[in-house]
Amino acid sequence: MTVVGVLGAGQLGRMLALAGYPLGLRFEFFDENAEAPAGHLGGLTVAGWADRAALDAFSGAVDLVTYEFENVPVAAAERLATRVPVFPPPKALDVAQDRLKEKSLFRRLDIGTAPFATVDTRVDLDSAVAEIGLPSVLKTRTQGYDGKGQRVLRRGEDLDPAFAAIGGRPLILEGFVPFERELSIIAARSRTGETAYWPLIENVHRDGILRLSIAPASGADDALADEAAAIAARTLEALDYVGVLAIELFQHEGRLLANEMAPRVHNSGHWTIEGAKTSQFENHLRAILGLPLGATGTTGVSAMVNLIGETPDSAAVLAIDGAHLHLYGKPARPGRKLGHVTLVEPERATLESALARIASILHEPTLSR
Amino acid sequence: MTVVGVLGAGQLGRMLALAGYPLGLRFEFFDENAEAPAGHLGGLTVAGWADRAALDAFSGAVDLVTYEFENVPVAAAERLATRVPVFPPPKALDVAQDRLKEKSLFRRLDIGTAPFATVDTRVDLDSAVAEIGLPSVLKTRTQGYDGKGQRVLRRGEDLDPAFAAIGGRPLILEGFVPFERELSIIAARSRTGETAYWPLIENVHRDGILRLSIAPASGADDALADEAAAIAARTLEALDYVGVLAIELFQHEGRLLANEMAPRVHNSGHWTIEGAKTSQFENHLRAILGLPLGATGTTGVSAMVNLIGETPDSAAVLAIDGAHLHLYGKPARPGRKLGHVTLVEPERATLESALARIASILHEPTLSR
Predict the structure, then answer these.
(1) pLDDT higher than threshold 60 for residue A369
(2) Is residue B130 packed enough to be buried (19+ CB in 10 Å), middle (13-18) or exposed (0-12)?
(3) Which residue from B170, B174, B150 is spatially nearest to B162, judged by alpha carbons?
(4) Complex ipTM, two decimals?
(5) Min Cα–Cα distance to chain A from B321, Å
(6) Is residue A194 part of a domain?
(7) Which among A255, A116, A223 is positioned nearest to A105, based on CA atoms?
(8) What is the pTM of this model?
(9) Which residue in B has a C-alpha nearest to residue A15's C-alpha?
(10) B149: domain range?
């Protein structure tokens, strides 16, 4: 029986395991946190990413390694790769962890991005602002996620406090794109080179955290879907990528700009569990095992709503016809992703009314922007 | 977090856990076999059913108990029920374990069955044959499943060897029904009394083991579906049942006869994982937790093919568009259920061609009767 080693044991690892047991796989997780929620679904090695002995022991217990956490140190992935296959390739991890490398890759592949410039010093910041203009966004090159490590610069007087807050580390200044909406494309590439693409997804963020995904994105014509797939295809190819890759996109004046990539299954793809013929989790596993990829067509129009900070009463959610509840088994904490609810409906109109019921359970006037 | 105790840790327990983690549940299994395949998906107590200390410790580690194995001794379920809620009620287990009690319940509820008579002695067998006629089937009252403990009697000379083979235990003689086809109905009843019914399922057995299920059963009109649901409804009510119940039926001259019931999730309901809006596994858990039951409508026409004795190459199965592979993580052994494949198609015609591809992978001319 093939044993898949997963770096990180959060909810993504948990959903990978739920998709992988039916394929006859077993799972071993590696995480710094003994309470990580995938721990109930497989073995769990609790150790730090720099613990070479633990990494070596882990590599001896698994047939191949993947990751569900994109901040795994590249050195850890590379060490494992000397002993067992590691997918996606550590190179993808390296690029995805650094906004400058990521945006530079997109630029090299002729994929549109917001304008950007490197900022290492306070002086660099002035030059970058002169080049890119305001408003713009100052971000740490590494370790940022869910809106952390970012400052919006609107006027000259914002520069000093922003640099004081996040400077001293390598930074990047990105032009502020007044995008119409945020989209994402999720793609898979197998060890055999086979590729698959789910339909374009529309995403709504709130306070920097994904709140709602709708798939297929409304009003996305074939040309837009093809443009997104081409962006993903070029990126997969350039990285000799294996596994599921997510690319966050901005739609602006009819064009797609790549914002960032995640070299793993992605929150905006959770709807695929019920809303697509094959989920992102199953296809990630098929891809890294070199198995044929499953069909990525939809079973209807889907909406995925994140449960953030607190979880509603399960009975209230499950009373909604067709609502699929996914709890991650994590203790509640403000701003924490604790679960999600997926709705799949044959048509957009019925999806809207089901979404309104979810909004009411979550005590929110609306889930849209 | 609610911890569900499951008696038995086979593939049914495994699929219960896969359905239950997204509901935020945890699982503890109890099985005599340390290699039981659900063991990777939760805690596993390895002990005999008569081990009272182990049962007591188990009850202390869980919030409620259910079972996935219908031959759990009733005494074990009753002992647990003095400490924690046990669903379905042990009474249902008691009835389902004894073909005489089972058929007597059906008769009391005005549900048609094959004619039957009790056989404890060789003399009883003569009287029973005189009453019911030949051909008929001599069966052990308890412990029979997948065609074990049964002898078909066609002529008078079959009686002695049949009694010699399985006599000495309480037996039942059942009239042989020249049924047109085998069907099953799967129903759920919640702690709140809410009920739900999946569409009628058509089943094909081979060598006493389920080979293929198709749902909805072809040509099943509303009247037949209503008759099956009424049979299930009366049984659920009579047993004050909580959980998923399966009833195997014979269709004979336009009528339905109840053959036997399983007080648990059932092999003929595995298609519901992808083929229904809510699976039998999820609704079993919702029922025993008193949560609202999920919708039981179909997502298409489904076929479930059991993988018996050996498993085909995963890549060959997964290359079939829309094929869902479910392996149980059990070592191969002749006659053993090792997994299943589910196909869901919008129409029967495309389902037939997908089934033909599965048959070819399994090196069988056809999967039908």
Answers:
(1) no
(2) exposed
(3) B150
(4) 0.94
(5) 6
(6) yes
(7) A116
(8) 0.95
(9) B22
(10) 115-175
